[in-house]
Amino acid sequence: DAKTTQPNSMESNEEEPVHLPCNHSTISGTDYIHWYRQLPSQGPEYVIHGLTSNVNNRMASLAIAEDRKSSTLILHRATLRDAAVYYCILSGYKIIFGKGTRLHILP
Amino acid sequence: DSGVTQTPKHLITATGQRVTLRCSPRSGDLSVYWYQQSLDQGLQFLIQYYNGEERAKGNILERFSAQQFPDLHSELNLSSLELGDSALYFCASSVLGASSSEGYTFGSGTRLTVV
After folding, report:
1. A62: closest CA among A95, A94, A37?
2. Do A43 and B33 count as a contact with CB atoms less than 8 A apart?
3. Which of B26, B37, B43 is the best substitution to test chain A (most A C-beta atoms within 10 A)?
4. Residues A21-60: tens digit of each pLDDT
5. Secondary structure in 3-state letters for chain B
């Protein structure tokens, strides 16, 4: 199974943009890149996904490198409610979550 | 409300006992996934069912089993429980299955405490 690598934790100030990186050097051509987040005491929540092109939705943007070996989740204006663990995963035969990045938002 | 319903929300039981966790997928979803999340651990994939049949297996112990019924709800059975089985158990559903572009919808989980 293709794996992803994310920083253990990141910090950002409230109302500033946040860029969460993810490396996936062994991604296959058919793997989609998915991002989920998990708020304390809740189940994971879908954020965004993409294949090759950059994607935007109401929650975030996903920037995918041209070689697809890395991607970046962009929260345009972080709020305290965005403090969560963010998981970058690849869709494949089995969906495997890594440890994710714990995002701290400073007021 | 995500549309994925898990019951019960909390469960406390003794070592050696057996419990059943239930998951009702979002309406229209054919796939159900089970995950285990221990304290300070990531989400461990256990098993996936698609339209009643087992589709993929993760690190699921032999003491654990699951099934998906004709109405598409799923049950995860945990037997001979040990203290280390204490965890949050999440169910997720999707229309199709893995290897697709769609996202998963997760339930709010069942917190199992083994004493």
Report:
1. A37
2. no
3. B43
4. 999 998 888 888 999 999 988 899 999 999 999 999 988 9
5. CCCCEEECCEEEECCCCCEEEEEECCCCCCEEEEEEECCCCCEEEEEEEECCEEEEECCCCCCEEEEECCCCCEEEEECCCCHHHCEEEEEEEECCCCCCCCCCEECCCEEEEEC
Q: B107–A43: do the CB atoms touch at under 8 Å?
A: yes
**Measured between beta carbons, which residues in chain B are less than 8 angstroms from residue A93?**
56, 98-99
Residue A50: enclosing H or E segment and its boundaries? Answer: strand A45-50
Of A49, A51, A98, the CB nearest to B42: A98
Q: Do B43 and A94 touch (CB under 8 A)?
A: no
Give B-chain residues touching A42 at CB under 8 angstroms: 108-109
> Tell me, what's the pLDDT at A44?
92
Q: Which residue in A88, A45, A92 sits closest to B3, CA to CA? A: A45
